[in-house]
Amino acid sequence: MDNFVIEMRNITKIFPGVVANDNITLQLKQGEIHALLGENGAGKSTLMSILFGLYQPEEGEIFKNGVKVDIKGPNDANELGIGMVHQHYKLVDVFSVLDNIILGSETTKFGFLKKKDARAKVIELSEKYKLHVDVDALIEDITIGMQQRVEILKMLYRDNEILIFDEPTAVLTPQEIDELMEIMRGFTREGKSILFITHKLNEIMAVADRCTVLRKGKYMGTVNIKDTSIEELSEMMVGRKVNFVVDKQLEKVGETILNIEKLTVSSKRHKNNAVKNISFNVRGGEIVCLAGIEGNGQTEFVHALTGLEKISSGKIELKGIDITKVSIRKRSKLGMSHIPEDRHKHGLILDFRLEQNLVLQRYWEPKFQNHGFIKEQAVREYSDKLIREYDVRSGKGSLTIARSMSGGNQQKAIIAREIDRNPDLLVAFQPTRGLDVGAIEYIHKQLVAQRDKGKGVLLISLELDEVMNVSDRILVMYEGEIVGEFDPKKVTVQELGLYMAGAKRNKEEISNE
After folding, report:
1. CATH of the domain at 312
2. Per-residue b/e over 55-66, b at no fewer than 16 CB within 10 Å?
3. Do residues 304 and 184 share a domain?
4. Phi, psi of 72, rounded to the nearest 5 degrees
5. Is 207 exposed, middle or buried (0-12, 13-18, 19+ CB in 10 A)?
6. Separation between Cα atoms, residue 40 and residue 52, nearest integer Å
7. Are both 138 and 28 inside the same structural domain?
8. E runs forming strands in 183-235
9. Range with top average pLDDT, 78-87, 123-132, 448-457, 463-472
10. Is 168 helix (H, G, I), strand (E, B) or coil?
């Protein structure tokens, strides 16, 4: 019989209106990477939050090395050697990297904080695991990838032996993902055990030893990775065969929807401009993808395009109308929709009901208000319709508080709201981030459907598979400049990678056809 370092037996967790975990058993072996796979809202994060002490189950028991344990909170979990990197990082933006790592585990003497020893330990761990973080940098000044390394160092600093990663690659670049996989392998070589929540099947195949699959809160089985395939895992997860190839007809390009002329946007992080004198267009009936490694000006560009940030110079035209200085609402009314990069910061009001979030861009329309009073019934009916059409899963339907939903279902709600407005230009920034294969397949179909209706789609993506499969035209952004324009049918992933890393550029070939 196997000796399991962690065993969760018959765990049941119920939230109002939904059974998040229904009699689930999970067994983690010493020194293995064990993947936890499932659709958005399948109960993966809930199960791991129970193991970490954030939730208490209605039924079930947890054993560590065969001994029953009672985990009432994260401090109990840490004492048992269990650490967790959350999907949405738990860091204090105005604190330094060092302060975030030691927060809650401070070493003191006579009431005074002993930072010298802590600093030495953090630097030693950083070098040992090749995490390379600047311990004095403020969290608000470092990239998302670096913030994740800080979360990993928080676990290591507490000498955790069981490491939980909740969607660790959702916000990372391809290079950072490769580095993280190598770090995880290094952990297991030292005897640490990893629970790895993900939607990305190729990552499971590359790094996991075993995989447990959940579907709608129920246990579907555990398989050895060497004995299975991506197709089998996807079918276990969603209950049907998934098409991994995006079906689309040849594009029928129409009039120019978006025209960008010599756009420059300043940077809040450094003296150089984040976006440097870029020009391109998006026409009706095509999906143009802005590809690049995170931190090369994509965020600042999209903020300028959608009105979240002012531009330094240049011009933005939507359907021939100069929108360079118009308000966000005016851009929205003129036909621009925006699926934002950060769903919590710019996509949702987390403490509002789902139905309120779904009319954020439309509540002033006569359909939803009368003399300034919201028509509650009309809002409810519209919200219920979008929830059905886009398969947004939530415990109380339209009445669900947005904060309580899974990350993937929050994303689906935003996509439903933005696409249903029937925009002329859809700006989609990482639209499938944190979504399962079934939901990704659905969102890609929606993007292609917009394009086939003659709409313009501007896709900003870090996922090379998505870039290659969905785009009609690819623009590569590096250090705030567009350094290459490509036809996805004629370029290789390797070639794109060179341009994304700044090793090559063909600026002179870029044109606004």
Report:
1. 3.40.50.300
2. bebeebebebee
3. no
4. -90, -15
5. buried
6. 20
7. yes
8. 193-198, 210-215, 218-224
9. 448-457
10. coil
Task: Over range 168-189, report the average pLDDT.
Answer: 78
Domain span at residue 218 reads 4-238
Distance CA 454, CA 173 (A): 31
Q: Structure tokens of 25?
A: 């058993």
Report residue 446 as tokens. 């929606």
* One-character DSSP codes across 401-452: BGGGS-HHHHHHHHHHHHHHT--SEEEEESTTTT--HHHHHHHHHHHHHHHH
Comparing 400 with 503, the larger pLDDT belongs to 400
Identify the three-state secondary structure at position 226. Answer: helix
For the entire predicted model, the pTM comes to 0.71
Predicted pLDDT of residue 1: 43
* Three-state SS at 389: helix
* pLDDT at res. 284: 94
CA distance 493 to 484: 13
Please say whether the beta carbons of 322 and 316 come within 8 A: yes
> CA-based angle 336:337:342, to the nearest 5?
135
| Both tokens assigned to 61 | 């028991």
State how beta strands 4-15 and 59-64 pair: antiparallel
- Per residue in 427-453, pLDDT (tens digit) is 999 898 777 777 888 889 889 999 999
Average predicted confidence (pLDDT) for the chain: 87
Q: Based on C-alpha coordinates, what's the Rg of the chain? A: 24
Question: Closest Cα to residue 457, out of 305, 311, 336, 324?
Answer: 336
